[in-house]
Request: fold
Amino acid sequence: MAILLGAVIVAGSALPAQAAPEPLREFHQQQPEWKPCAFHAAAECADIAVPMDYARPGAERISIALSRIRASDPARRRGVLLSNPGGPGGEGLELPKAFAGTPLAKAYDLIGFDPRGVGRSTELSCEDTVPDPKVRSRPTDAEMTVLVDHARAVEAACAKAGGELRKHVNTANTARDMDVIRAVLGEKKINYLGFSYGTYLGAVYGSLFPAAVDRSVLDSAVHPDWVWRDQFKQQAIATKQSVQAWAEWVGERNESFGLGRSAAEVIAVVERISARLAVKPIDGMTQTFFDRILAALRFRGGWQEFAEIIKGISEAVEQPARSADAVRALRLLHAAGITPTRQGVFDAVLCEADWPTDVSTYLDDMRTFREKYPYGGGIVAAAPFPCTFRSFTPKEQPVRLQRKGYQAGLVVQAEADAQTHYDGGPALAERLSHHLVSVADEGEHGLYLFNPCVTRHVDRYLLDGVLPPSRSVCAGQPRPEVPEDGAGVNTRFAPTKSLEAAARKLIAEGKVGHKPF
Reply:
């Protein structure tokens, strides 16, 4: 990818914000009662009412929890910045504190909110009565039916507890809630910063309320044509791509790691370990745990330690103490990763789109993923979801994404993101005619505040209105400085004294771990 030169200065749109339809006027004219929030000294919190069903605004109402950190430099204030951490179902009330120490805090009132069904907003629940399925990462055909039964049971449990609200928890209604928030704050337009699922939410908001959008940044984008089943399948494919990239890097450094002289040889070692763990776990480590933890290979900064861990496990028979150290290191890295959660909003929003209802479609896909994409989420990415057995008919179809009536914004995407595949970034940027910032050789999900180059582009756009080139590239987190074979450097394999200590160091340095989005 080539880096283009130049910049575009974006002026604010002169289009007026859409007037409130008469049935929504009382919602738009609410006066929230702001009180101090517990999570940040400068933050205020309030609750507002919105219609449960926007087609019937005079009927049931629900509550939306808001937070606000006012611009610290009133003379520079240029409006409000709404943010969303993703999910679907991520709690966004405390997200503004992540930006409170940035230049954005001087120019914007930082606005957070818990979307409908989440957190302090009116909650949508599923009955928590369905145990996790006991299915291996590479199940037999017979075992795959367990995943089918699990999806059906989860949908039944959510239907029991979801009530009327479940039918109205979708992206379009969350976007409509955002427009009520805009009006309640007394703003003609909002500025927006969304991550992951929040990119799709921002695109839907702009499609429904184009005159109310000023500047928009969509970080780690959902592919507009993969809503929602294909998005999950692509996660497993992206994980396999990172495993392949790591194997190529390790194969060029056999003198350092001793795992093989090519990507194929390194993958063969990984597969031998996985097959051995399927028969006899090591220190409690199963094949399923091992396959899943390989998703961490998207983090380039940990490749050296991960290679040493794999080497330690491969030598487990001769060096049992070494294997125990490697297992402890893997468990630390697993605990530091982003763990998917299941909640009522997650299920409900994903059911806004139609899923295949023929179980044989899923069984065929699971067989393929078992063989080709077993790492990370693997086969689960192709398995039936509760939406396969959806017990309600959505009130509306997903919004057709378009940008018509508001200025161009930014899409940011990492090349090896395993949560939202890279292809989603170019696709969403093309659909909305936004500018795209790609991060090369990077597996992070959520780049703003993590990648300095991305942060500069986003800050300059949100603060000064200056867009980067229509297609530009930032460098990702550097790979470890381990010389290639034949570099004339003594690179004989010298394992780290403690792999557990090395894993702790990676976490402490922020090379793997949780983010607020």
User: Anything to note?
Assistant: The mean pLDDT is 90. The CA atoms of residues 189 and 212 lie 4 Å apart.
